[in-house]
Amino acid sequence: MKAVLIDLDGVIYQADQPIPGAQRTLDWLKARRIPYLFVTNTTSRPRDAVVEKLRLMDIQIKPQEVLTPVVAVAGWLNTQGAVTIASFLPKTTQKDLSQFAQWAGTDDGCVSAVIVGDLAEEWSFGELNRAFRLLMSNPDCPLLALGLSRYWRSVQGLQLDVGPFVKALEFATGRAAIVFGKPSRDFFQQALTMLDVKASEALMIGDDIRGDVGGAQAAGLKAALVKTGKFQQTDLSGDIVPDGILASFAELPAYWKSLE
Ligand SMILES: [Mg+2]
């Protein structure tokens, strides 16, 4: 095993608190010169805000160590020569897509892509219907999903994530979304390319049995599940079997030893 892909929410921090031992484990990775990359499905804030949020918890990471679906989608839109987009993302995250013109016209316009992220409290029937109508008015307009997570755990409890809204649009339009973010195989491949390792040489560590563990395994990686964040005991009785189960990210050094 040569490198580690690390989920952030639920692995490094939970709500507004760091997971005990997280920074120590990151220091251990650095000391051992084990390459790592944070792979997060966060679309509620831009990459530099993710870094700042962690800094406030005394966890030091760099923007270039973080792969988000928005960063991945911006790269893809560039290859497609996209001009005008309609993105359903919180205003702060739109910043990472500021190189593209944001559609501000009617619901029936022709845009290069409809991008759906975690709009959370800002979702309304009107917003979801606007995305639907933009897709219906142009059969060639791709639906780009920033992850397919079903839900996450906030301070208030479980919250719907981006997946249910993407599925609603897929169902209504009969069109399949292109997924950027976990559990998409392409997203894991993009992370491996950034680390310059093969799938068989990397371990994914996350708290989401489907997005992190199932997604990574389908892409050919080994994957360990942590019992923090959104972990539930029932995760262990489903169809996905993690290669390792850790009480928390702090157990990574001991687990790593067992892989050598
Ligand atoms: Mg997570």
UniProtKB/TrEMBL annotation:
Domain of life: Bacteria
GO cellular component terms listed in the entry, alphabetical order: cytoplasm
Cofactor(s) this protein cannot do without: Mg(2+)
UniProt GO MF annotations: metal ion binding; phosphatase activity
Keywords of the record: Hydrolase, Magnesium, Metal-binding
Keyword Plastid (UniProt): no
Pfam families assigned to the protein according to its UniProt record, in alphabetical order: Hydrolase_6, Hydrolase_like
Family listed: Belongs to the HAD-like hydrolase superfamily.
Name by which UniProt lists this protein: Haloacid dehalogenase-like hydrolase domain-containing protein 2
